[in-house]
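BUG: 3D viewer hangs when loading the predicted structure for this chain

Environment: internal workstation, default settings.
Expected: structure renders.
Actual: progress bar stalls at 90%.

Input used:
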Amino acid sequence: MDDRLNNICIALIVISMLLSGCTGESEPELESIEGCMDENAENYNSDATNPDQSCIYEEDEEIDEPEIILSSQSEFCDDVNPHHCMLPFPAPTFLLDDESSNTGYRLHIPGEAIPDSGSTPTDEFHMINRLDGYSPSTQIFTAFDSTPNVSEMADQYNIGDSLNPEHETILINLDNGEIQPHWVEIDARSQDDEATFVYVRTIKGLDHDTSYGVAYRNMVDDSGNTIQGSDAFVALRDNLTTDSNQIEEQRVDYEELFNALTGVGVERSNLQAAWYFHTASTESMIQDLVEMRDDASERLGSEGIGCNVTEVIDDWGEENTTFRLIRGTVTTPQYMESAFAPSEMRRDDSGSPEFVENREIVFTILIPKILADENRSGELTILGHGFMGDGDGMVRGNHVFANMYGKVMIGTDWKGWSSDGDFEALTFSLINVEYFQHQQERHMQSIINNLAMIRTFTGICSDIDELKHNGTNLVDSSDIDYWGVSFGGLRGPALMSMVPEVDRGVLWVGGSSFTHQIERSTHYTTFEILFTEDVAYPSRNNRGILIALLQSIWDSTDAETFLPYHQSGIEGMIQPFEMAYITSMNDYQVSSLSCDRAVRTAGITNLDSSAWKPWGVDVVANQITGSGVVYFDGQFPPVPIGNQAGSTDYHGNAHGQVVPLPEAYSMAWGFLDTGIITDTCNESCTFEGVWD
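Structure tokens produced before the viewer hung:
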């Protein structure tokens, strides 16, 4: 065969090979041809001299994208963090799209994702899955294979450091791009066999119906080693594919987060963890309570249904301060299946509260002697008792103030955390946290109970004979104030928001965001032994997740939900109100940090003579017109740093000694009378506390 024929044959072979690539038919592999002049060809021959010689080229191979195999996957969990089913918290995977909701989301956390107790599997929370987002008071945290060193990051006393452009943690409002101040905290309750939570602590309630992003970057551990992100997060950050459908489905949302972080100067490659979440709307959080309030108001009318006096004690206490103590019951619309704890709320097919029947709830009224002596009436003050207390004890305990200021005291039980069976119900809830929903439903019922009591004694029972002396009605029900201590201080904003007759109150040693404060409270120590038992939740990380998760059910009565609206209210939902927070430094029961949160959330001012000036709160000299805060300091032992409780040896010192302080109570009663917080501290609100 001559060279010309040889070249034709070779050309035909090459054309045939190219055509087979178009038709998709496979051809047998060709042998290499010697003498190829193209160094990129499979059969390149460096000794070849003929430039016309043909070459066989190696076909391009398809290269698969790198794939990360995730060892920890579940259809019920968020696969981003392998250390816990519900990490990071609040996890974005539990936010489902829902165009019918106010936020465009619906929160759905399946029971399989919620930690089980040692006694029973945990089902989903019906109160949580009605919500259209996470709690604006949510805790925020995640965990890593090793624990970061946070010693140079913002702490609770250096909040402003979190706004440094190089700070290792970032909290960003994704709706407006603003960086949010916060501080960083390592879980003080961690156990050795579990990864340690690293908290980003918000300093106030987040905006309702708003998207937020969280990021951790450039962190090292105590040995100086760089903290590593989880495999799933690294795949999202570095555009690597995974075998998790859930991770891949979140990729678009994570890209939006990464873009937002890049926009505020955060380098994507430096991220070790990041996620996003959306907060619930106000309507979603308080829909149950508003529906109950509106239904109860219609049933009560403008006068109430009725009252029944069961006991009258003249000269109660024989201390020459009390003219009359009156006990009885008020007819009240009820939405709980039973009056006894634990009991759940009756709900209709849509999940809304449903009226059960009218029942009698207890009340106590104390009329001070000064009113009878002067034959005049005194304004009615509704009292809110402390944790596991009762209305009757609270009223009797304030008989001196009643006589000192000529006030008529009235109170009922805060069902949910009262002495009426709630201690036993609470202990049961620690073994199965689902039952906390029933306790919270009792809290909502308590708001209705107070509404009924006030409506009744400003209406149908405002002129009963037991309130009179020498022809004078000793009770002036035309202007009613609120006085709440401890737990009563925590619940005051919810009551004033829902009860139209009450628009001003003093909130003693109170605060907001229950789950941010509880682990810092000696009250938690009382129940911790049971909570950590094998029959309950022996895993610290499970307990931490559950405590954080419960904030979404407490929101319906938590002060932090209502405080943003104290000035203007929301038409048809929340009425405006004024409040004076009076708190005590180094409080072992209700941390002053929770009062700081309340003050910032409400946007109120601090008196210049206060013993403490929280970061980000404006200071006013001499007096505050309208809502404000004053901190008193009795030089009590400092509370521990972090989410841990102090010694029970100091359980009630700071918490209990501020109310009897003349500078404090004269300030409080003056505010109730005038709406002005006047400086009664003589330049410094400090005093000599008794604690040793």
